[in-house]
Amino acid sequence: MAEDGRHGDVAVIGDGPWGAMLADLLAVRHRRVLLWGPGEEVRALIRTKRRHPLLGTLKLAAEVTPVDDVAEAATPDLLFVSLHPSKYRPVMEQLGPHLTGDQRVVSASRGLEVGSGARLTEVIRQESCVRQVGALAGPRFDAKMALKHAPGAGVVASAYPAVVEAVKGRLHSERYRVYGSTDLVGVEAGPVLSLVIVMVAGMVEGMALGAATQSIVLTRGLAEVARLAVALGARPETFRGLSSLGVMLGACLTGEHPAYKMGVKLARDPDLSATLSGDDPDYDLRHSADSVLTLARARGVSMPLTEMAAAVMAGRYSPADALHALMSRPATDEL
Amino acid sequence: MAVWDTLPLVRRHAPPLPGGLEPAEMRRRLIDEVAGRVHAAALAKGDQEVERLLLDGFYHEHERLSKVAREPGQPEEAVTLAQWEGVRQEVFRGSVVARREVLGRIIRAHAEEIAGHFNQQVYDLSTSVLPPALNLLLHGTDPKRIIKNLPHVPRLKDTFVIDGQKERIQRLVRRGTVVLVPTHFSHLDSILVGYGISALGMPPFTYGAGLNLFTNPLLSFFMHRLGAYKVDRKKRHEIYKEVLKTYCTVSLEMGQHNLFFPGGTRARNGAVEDHLKKGLLGCGLAAYIHNLQVGKPEPRIFIVPATLSYQLVLEAETLIEDFLKEKGKNRVIIEKDESHELERIARFFVELVKLDSKIYLTFGRALDPFGNEVDDDGVSLDPRGRPIDIERYVWVDGKPQEDVARDHQYTNELAERITVELHRANVIQSTHLVARATFRLLRRRHPNVDLYRLLRTGERTSVFALDEVTAEVEALLAEVTALAHADRLKLDPQLKPGRGALVVHDALAHFATYHTRAALMSDGAGGVAFGDLNLVYYYQHRLDGYGLA
Fold this sequence. Notes:
By secondary structure, chain A is α/β, with parallel strands linked by helices. Chain A is about 50% helix and about 15% strand.
């Protein structure tokens, strides 16, 4: 650590809006934040204007340093990876050979790998020799919040306490609080599983059913998400935290999350599902729901809200029929 | 001409011990280093820690020694009850200096107790005597077989099959220090693994043998002389556990290849281990880090999983009975069982030979202390097959250093990888398959009955038609064949789709021998009946861990 109490280099792999935002947050505690991504235009804009094309008027800190070579980005002892799941493995295939056993890599992405359903930290482990991996998750922190100086928070989880302590020590600041956890599976799986429930909450708004119904969806949705995650090896208490409950509330209270908006759209235009294609960002959520259900069925876990959401997105049910099917289920115990 | 004159003698001279040390000198150095290291570590934590350790020792040992009388033939305690009473008095009345000295003496006494007595001459003799003796047990009591095969005298290799990555382990023992971690089903495992090591021309391995084996009439001879060190599983105090772990670590640092059973005790339910005891497993990593710190030229430690597979297990009846009583908690150390009866052991082998049965010792993929696979030269590889500089896993600020939390997690991950390899090297045989098939049929017939109630009350009345059993075996054969193709397990060569009837016949032939009651038997009317449901339950566990119903 330097005399000013700041750390040396840290890297962020992935120059999307959250990757750039994360780099800006890390700049508080580091002298240099290496930012690498596949978009040459993005790097050029950051170099010349200190701006990111999707972060509006937010000016990124001077410490944020775009790099062109992934090998250079691989040099710091701590790296964060913020990539869309579909790009994760191809990028890790490039990055993996440059990593060494004493480095720590934290996944700051949301989602499961398309096709395999693997958690993204598993992809890091499969494509490199790195063992000390972690995951960072929490409610969305975007440019609007940064410009208003609104505080953000997230949870970092790892089976290696040193990873948790490193992220806490190097990301935690007055702008962004970082909490620690040892439940890697729960913190990684929580946001993915939760977003389908967020979509259902959006459908409730689209159908103008009111806040009380939304609260039922969120509460029972959290229960089924926790059921599956526990079957995957997570701990149930993790779902009361930032990576699940925090993500759900953040998405629903703002009403601006893409998953929530998709739910609203689907409720108002049931034919929308038929027009979704692989290139459509909303298609990701449909794929996420299918991935979640594949995991749930393999483990015999009941997820009625996710089942109905997937059915609506696939065009098999209208939102009204889905609601009727859910309410026609027999009574059961809450816990 | 006596029978034994016709048997080939395997006279092997084992390679010298690491460092060219004489065994007695190695033993002395080991004890000195272990005692010194454990004592220094305790003193470094302060006098309150010294006091705490002494009282912890007194509490546990007083509990144990005052309740259980010493049995004939049992070795003397390293620290007697009277001596522990003296320790207590030192804690409450003695000086700080006196307490430190007492701790040092106790540590040394435990180190002396644990250390084995390797004898090169006896090792050479026993490795030349053992194979024919084992051979004799396996073949010699069947004179017809001897006569029929003269001059082709049956050899050990006909019955005992050493397979898997044996060439790799033969290379690795010359490139670093090896920790062999086999499955544990029977007390015969120690002898057979020891024979396998010798047959492959490898140097002797030291290993921790439970104290009860030193009173076993067959095994005690070998335990003392083949470099076994004594592990007293009844001792639960911290000093003892620390001395034991440090003993294992230092012996690895000194280049002694080690063997220990990562499951701790024999698998009571007959399943391949899926929960390992991590205490000794972490010694490989501790030794590796220390080797790096002192700049040892060849610091590498390799961990080699190995799976033994028997058609029938010598002690199966006792083990499953114990499992069902404790519901798998493995709390009881079984002092006497079938392995204490020489006649029983002889009969066991005779029956296996009559049926042309095989005992498999299959070496799994060799690993480094972090769970990465290593190649023939001992180079660690990442999941994509790229070489890794594993030294960096233990760097702190650029230097190799222990980190308790980090190393604990590395060992957890190593344990996970070992269980995968143990399952992969598992050879399924007819008894396992047919037991599983019939158990499935039984569960389908009684879907709502609690399993333990089913076993404890004894299901004697279920009979299944031979056709039904054969069909279920064929279905299971298809499933395990797919698993074998996916390299998740191995199959005895006779286990092939379409051979269900032969597999059933072979299993029933095995079950009809050796055990007091046959696990399964033909009822004489074209059906298959349960003779000992507990044994069926035991043998079917061999197929646990693969996601099969």
